[in-house]
Specification:
Shape: globular
CATH topology of the largest domain: Rossmann fold
Number of strands: 11
Order of helices and strands: EHEHEHEHHHEHEHEEEEHEH
Strand order of the largest sheet: 1-11-8-7-5-6
Mean pLDDT: 95
CATH superfamily of the largest domain: NAD(P)-binding Rossmann-like Domain
CATH class of the largest domain: Alpha Beta
Strand content: 15-25%
């Protein structure tokens, strides 16, 4: 039976550290503040935003929410972003994704001041991640790397396989390379995916496909990090990994929920405090 990597407990410890940093800023008259733009009424987005607001409150970070209807046009979103960019009391700005289909997400992300891009999605920050110089790195891959470090799991010299080349997989692969892992990136066009995943000492599932990683795809004793989150047919949350089966094979594994999700949120807090100068 594998060790469960408790992201919730690790995130709680980091949140306390972030709160201490926020407290030091407060002594200088600075209250770190993150502003979220929420467009429409996507139920999952509503949950994510509430979680972020609660986490900010626990860490002493101010939270602002700008709500726009699903019918909002792109110019309205861009205007809201420009206003937050110009507000010196706001240190972090993010647009909750996904946006309605008629909105160009990239144009909205590109409009955020890179120095306030606490989600780490702006092209400027993405480029710095690739160079290993990121000031504000994407929260989920940053949370993955922090979870490994806090759990005492070595990365240097290990063979890491990343399944997924999207907004999480690409920067995560860059971070793993910078941490001296040997990295293989797999995706929907990979031939014989299982042959690659079975070679992984560190396996990262971020393809967005529920329970796609099965027990026979995992090397015995491997560390398995599940970045996915889905609502299964039975109403329960699950990830990209078939958790119950894979935990019988893996050496260590993250659960869903309670794994990378809390780490993503606490990295948002850390980025906000960093953007505020703490």
């Amino acid at each position: 039976m594998s060790t469960i990597l408790d992201g919730k407990a690790i995130a709680a410890r980091i949140r306390q550290q972030v709160a201490e940093r926020a407290g030091k800023l407060a002594m200088r008259g600075i209250t770190p503040c993150v502003a979220v733009i929420l467009v429409g009424e996507n139920p999952a987005s509503e949950v994510y935003v509430r979680n972020k607001e609660r986490a900010c409150q626990e860490a002493g970070i101010a939270f602002r929410l700008t709500r726009l209807p699903a019918s909002a046009v792109e110019t309205e979103i861009l205007e809201a972003i420009r206003g937050l960019n110009a507000d010196p009391a706001v240190h972090g700005v993010l647009v909750q994704l996904p946006l309605p289909g008629h909105i160009n997400e990239n144009r909205c992300i590109d409009a955020i001041d890179a120095a306030k891009d606490v989600d780490g999605f702006h092209p400027w920050n993405a480029g710095l991640v690739a160079r290993g110089e990121a000031v504000l790195a994407p929260c989920t891959p940053l949370g993955v790397m922090r979870l490994l470090a806090e759990s005492g799991i070595p990365v240097a010299g290990k063979h890491a396989v990343v399944v997924g080349r999207g907004a999480v997989g690409r920067p995560l692969a860059d971070m793993l390379v910078r941490a001296d892992a040997t990295v293989t990136v797999c995706h929907s066009k990979t031939v014989d995916l299982a042959a690659h995943t079975r070679e992984a000492e560190l396996l990262f599932a971020c393809a967005g496909v529920p329970r796609m990683i099965k027990a026979d795809m995992v090397r015995p004793g491997a560390v398995v990090v599940d970045v996915g989150i889905h609502r299964a047919d039975d109403g329960k949350l699950c990830g990209d990994v078939d958790f119950d089966a894979v935990r019988q094979v893996a050496g260590a594994i993250t659960p869903v929920p309670g794994g990378i999700g809390p780490m993503t949120v606490v990295m948002l807090l850390a980025n906000t405090v960093q953007a505020a100068g703490g």
